[in-house]
Amino acid sequence: MRIGILGAARIAPAALIRPARAVDGVEVTAVAARDANRARAFAARHGIPEVHDSYRTLLDAVDAVYIPLPNSLHADWTLRALEAGRHVLCEKPFTSNADEAREIAEVTAASGLTVMEAFHYRYHPLASRMAEIAHQELGRITHVETSMCFPLPRFSDIRYQLDLAGGATMDAGCYALHCLRLLGPGTPEVTGARALLRSPGVDRAMTADLRFPEGATGRITASLWSRSLLRLGARVVGERGTMSVFNYAMPQAYHRLRVTVDGRTRREKVRGEATYTCQLRAFEAAVRGEDTNLTPPSDSVATMRLIDDVYRAAGLQPRMA
User: What is the pTM of this model?
Assistant: First the structure.
């Protein structure tokens, strides 16, 4: 499978280029960027054989595309790739808003192509183990908390730009909401949210409260710049016990998993390859027809709906393309 990269993004080496060296049947063969000189330098640095002067021409030269473009461009280029008959691995957040995600879900369903949102953590064995413990060992779940907070003081970054669909909830909050959905008992609804703003309409931090169908409560905390400099955790409370996890997002570096059930506490370590390698293996297998896509567009619609609702609850507008 020949994969091309739309945009010479900083995340691409970790998310695709290095993992491709470990995954049989995958080769990164092309890159395109708005700045041709940047694309050529990127290709030379990473051993990519083809450089294209437009995203459109790249689509004609590959079997699949990786889209690490600004959030506001995700939907447009995912749809263009599908129109060209190409499989898509798209960075999160999947789109600018839920309406865009629904459109892609409909087009994907009719296409027979693979579209995967790049929630890489979901493909590491730790994510499945977390879900297994939450739903099989803790009894009736009463509360779920998830967080994704890290410092990004480079305020010129695209993640702070409203016209590029930026904001802490879009970047860090999408992780927290997705993990909350994974661990919680059903589909939650947003009951309230509080934002700290970097600029008008752009959140640098967000806290949101949610409620699940049977009454369990949830809370997400996300930030790019706040007093919570580093929080990467999940906690589930059930009638029989609790589970807490540190660093569900990049567990291959380090993680802690602590479980207390019926008064007995244990700690587990879950081994696995790097999350991005796990993700690329799943993407390659899904393209071959295996049932390995854990983050298809239908899943993305649910996450984007919550993101939109969090913004509304905080008195802000959902992102627009």
Answer: 0.96
